[in-house]
């Protein structure tokens, strides 16, 4: 090969090497919309406002039976067990990325046999060596076949000269933290869900008591109408109307009993146990949650939410993966040393002269894998944008949930106060129309209508109370409450 040809090949190789080392330009990422300075609730929030989210759930809920039920769910819920295993997987993945920064060392024992042709470099070289007068009998190479024995250690180490492996480790660390935040978000969900089902169960207990009370009253009214019919003061139609009303209320009683069974089953499932009776305080209207719903500043309060923290950490991991994908275009430096015993005869393997050592350092760069690397970079960039959009979506969702639940609680509390007045008025109306009916100044339809109205109002009152409690719980969760770092 002439000198000019060698120079041409060297120049071509240098051009290919330089061209392959060009990294793609950083992609432009979308801008995240900043959170408003305050929640639109009518009054500006201050930075030191105490929010309900800072209250531990053990103090937020004052019912000891509910606290015990939540504690049982947090220790036995299968979803939280699964989340814990996800954390273990993420920990193992981080350990793998950390190990990639260190040399790998493998111990090995190998034996190989080759038969070289007479007209090969090894064949001719072995033949000439065996004819040499400078070697002794132990140094003669066996012929047909030639054995190669090795016992020792081989290592491989990629030096992270550009920080690619560090970026991959940083991504794995962020994903581990994100997984832990995912479990925390699961805890807040369990706390809120258990409390919600618990208060629904209490509302159903109250509804059942209302129905049973009205059944007694309607049965008494039916007996009065029957007596009046016998005396000629009422018709058979009146008897049918009162009986139909009683049957309707009895049917509602069975439907409510089934709803109670369903709610208990849901609570037991959350607590990770088979169906059983739920111990509970049936004084539904005495249940209280924090009355002053202070929310704080959105930027500080919403970032307490584990799902927002999780989305932010996933974005950090995605950015690190993009950085690693860009650095994959650069050359990598690998060192592969070995140390051991090497001989062509088994009986000479443990001789002192069989000690062998060596090392190879190589700088490699991708040349014909550009399309693959570009595709990997495009995927990482798209995943980064997805993570950013999820982060933005979680912020929007969190802010919207807080605003919605604030109005929900305030409006439901106002509706509950009006419902209380409505029930009081209708209860007085039933008493009045009952007296008028017995004295003949009101007909049976007016009495039936009054009884139906008070029944519906009492059921609606319990439902309003339930929605107030559920709204406070939802607001507590929306602000990031329900996660107690000292206990879970």
TrEMBL record:
Its main location: membrane. InterPro entries: MdtP/NodT-like (IPR010131), OMP_efflux (IPR003423). It is found in: Cell membrane. Keywords: Lipoprotein, Membrane, Palmitate, Signal, Transmembrane, Transmembrane beta strand. Belongs to the outer membrane factor (OMF) (TC 1.B.17) family. PANTHER family: OUTER MEMBRANE CATION EFFLUX PROTEIN, OUTER MEMBRANE PROTEIN-RELATED. One of its GO terms (cellular component) is plasma membrane. This is RND transporter. It is a lipid-anchor. It comes from the Bacteria.
